[in-house]
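[09:14] KT: can someone run the structure on this one? pasting the chain below
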Amino acid sequence: MTVPSSSFDVTVALGALDPALSGRAARTRLGKPYLPGLAGFGVSDSAGMQARLYANRKYVGIDIEHLDRPDLAVRQQRLAAWLARRDRVVVDFLAGWVAREACAKSVGLGLLHALPRLSITGARPLGLGGAEIGLVFSRWSFVARCERVGRVLLCGCYRQEFGRPRICLLQSCDRGPRPPQ
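[09:31] RB: done, structure tokens below
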């Protein structure tokens, strides 16, 4: 008999875009990537960076956005009021955007299907410009943990009932060719 793990572990790998990953990950009928034999998996990319999330629970998602993305101001101007109409608290636009996208990915839906049923219900600051954002999707409560890592805003999302995860962030440091010794 297998005893389920009582802990919730999340590993996030952040590095350069890995196009080979797309070929290894299978997809659900709704398009969510998964790795056979792994309870929770998510992937996101932005401006040549990729974040992969591995967890021992389902209903986890990840999203990243590059802070220098040129269309962010236009996106904010077009969407901020529409997105905030269901929210109970005001949050920074970009943090709210990546939290919403990570939450939609955690349930395997695209943003167009998830946004009408998503609302931000709470937020608390974390050190160094991060935030923990509470969301409700239909009848489920989620927590999105957003943190700035270099020039990227990284957000992992999970069902609130899982409790606080142990998070391990792995970063690859591609610094180009090294000078001869």
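[09:33] KT: thanks! Residues 93-106 form the longest helix (14 residues).
[09:34] RB: yep, looked fine to me
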